[in-house]
Design a protein that fits this description.
The N and C termini lie far apart (68 Å). Strand 4, helix 4 and strand 5 form a beta-alpha-beta unit. This protein is globular. Strands 14-13-12-15-16-18-17 form a 7-stranded mixed beta sheet, sandwiched between helices. It has a 6-stranded mixed beta sheet with strand order 6-7-11-9-10-8. 34% of the residues are buried. The chain has 18 helices and 18 strands. The C terminus is likely disordered. It is an alpha/beta fold.
């Protein structure tokens, strides 16, 4: 921890002439603070009008040893850049920073957000007990333990829908809650989307008309109660969290509270508060180091593990759309899933966990293979990883193929080589017309769109569905 006091040596990073921080240099000086000047990539350009010393990082005239005592305050308007800049400055000898973390996912980062906001409000007397960068990094790596509640034996935290399953069954045939038709049928009736929930009545043992009406009235009363709490006191769902237990296959079985869990899922929640024994949490979290965590975060792929539960990509809708398609396709046929993309086996992991059938990952790069193996360890899975020439495709395969960057030639090579009943294509929207037309010409079959998403550019996700033994491979 460190304090910003009037005798502290302060440097402002990034000059802005348009927003609330444009007068911070003058204001701090007038309050008696020792502000040395600005670090800015445009130092020479801005020095003429800011009336303060300005340097680039390379030209900053203070030695490495002295830099450890200098406080850098970031003024950049784009807060998403703050952490990467601080990390870079730390490599140049600076140790003390006041900045806006990208996420307040640890107590140290929450404290930093509070201190930064106090600075913005000119409440300079509040700038005491600021976390140092090393402390933020250390606790970010350990930061899986982001509990909503924690006691001596149990903890409550948010768990992704894809990790929550119904009661444990023999041979692990229990369903993921996203595909729990008995419960989903009930909520469709409660929300006025359907009139019949025969499967749910059978599941609950309600046979007579009076039993069914009484059961439905009871469930409607619960539904209205939950609606009240969702709008007026969302903490109810933390206090009344469903109970789960760890399954050695790498997911959680719900022991009590199925209706509450599926209610929240039906309302669009991607992560659900559940209560588990601390020993089960320890089994889930395993181990991960800082370098691995950083590499996996750069993938921008949902990773159902405590270290990665605060990543925004988990809310992107295309992941679940693909998983729902794979479930429907995989449940209805004897098949295997083959993943050829840049997602390090995310879909293969979901397929193995939820559809409970064989999966295979295709990667050529040795670094990617090691990263994929690390990701599997975190997800308590073991899925074969092969080079493309080693794959013996089957007629019944489901294949996911992504076109990334300038790889159209290799993508079309895959299209010409691949065998399978359902070929999912993940391609840039700008390539959609010619690529899809050529793929359908080569593969034959019926073309459908599954979804779309946007990263550096727009992408579409499509599937070509073919009949086994009757591929009609176009003109080839």
């Amino acid at each position: 921890m460190f304090d910003i006091q009037k005798e502290s040596r302060i440097v402002l990073y990034g000059h802005s002439q348009f927003d609330i921080v444009k007068d911070k240099f003058r204001e701090l000086k007038e309050r008696g603070y020792q502000v040395l000047g600005y670090i800015d990539q445009r130092a020479k350009e801005i020095e003429t009008y800011v009336q303060a010393p300005c340097w680039t990082v390379e030209d900053f005239p203070v030695g490495l040893k002295e830099r450890q005592d200098i406080v850098i305050i970031l003024l950049l308007q784009n807060a998403r850049m703050h952490e990467s800049i601080v990390s870079s400055l730390c490599g140049r000898g600076f140790k003390k920073f006041l900045f806006l973390p990208e996420k307040a996912d640890t107590s140290e980062k929450t404290c930093m957000v509070q201190k930064y906001n106090a600075f913005i409000r000119s409440e300079y007397d509040e700038l005491m007990g600021i976390p140092e960068w090393d402390s933020l990094c250390l606790n970010s790596v350990k930061g899986g333990k982001r509990f909503l509640k924690c006691g001596k034996e149990r903890c409550t935290l948010l768990v992704p829908v894809e990790m929550l399953f119904l009661y444990e069954q023999e041979q692990s045939l229990e369903e993921n809650i996203a595909f729990a038709e008995d419960y989903l049928e009930l909520f469709a009736v409660l929300e006025g989307k359907a009139f019949e929930c025969g499967r749910y009545f059978n599941f609950m043992g309600a046979v007579e008309k009076e039993e069914k009406e009484k059961l439905l009235a009871d469930r409607l009363a619960l539904y209205c109660l939950w609606e009240h709490y969702r709008h007026c006191d969302i903490n109810y769902f933390i206090e009344a969290a469903a109970l789960v237990s760890w399954n050695r296959r790498g997911y959680f079985n719900i022991i009590d509270g199925h209706h509450r869990v599926i209610y929240l899922m039906a309302k669009g929640y991607k992560k659900i508060p559940v209560s588990m024994p601390l020993k089960d949490y320890d089994k889930w979290i395993g181990e991960a180091d800082q370098a691995l965590s950083a590499a996996l975060r750069r993938l921008r792929v949902p990773i159902p593990h405590p270290f990665f539960l605060n990543e925004e990509c988990i809310y992107e809708t295309h992941w679940q759309k693909v998983i729902h398609y794979l479930y429907a396709a995989g449940q209805s046929r004897d098949c295997r899933f083959v993943e050829i993309d840049t997602y390090m086996g995310y879909y293969a992991g979901a397929f193995q966990r939820i559809v409970k059938k064989e999966a295979l990952i295709v990667l050529e790069n040795e670094t990617d293979k090691r990263l994929c193996e690390s990701m599997q360890r975190l997800m308590h899975q073991k899925i074969p990883i092969l080079n493309y020439p080693e794959v013996m495709f089957r007629e019944t395969d489901l294949v996911y193929l992504k076109l990334a960057g300038n790889e159209e030639a290799s993508f079309m090579r895959f299209i010409k080589d691949v065998t399978g009943q359902c070929i999912l294509l993940d391609i840039p929207w700008e390539e959609e017309g010619k690529t899809l037309k050529e793929a359908v010409r080569i593969l034959g079959g019926d073309l459908k769109q599954i979804g779309s998403y946007h990263r550096d550019k727009a992408y579409g996700i499509y599937v070509i569905e073919r009949s086994v033994g009757n591929y009609g491979r176009g003109d080839d």
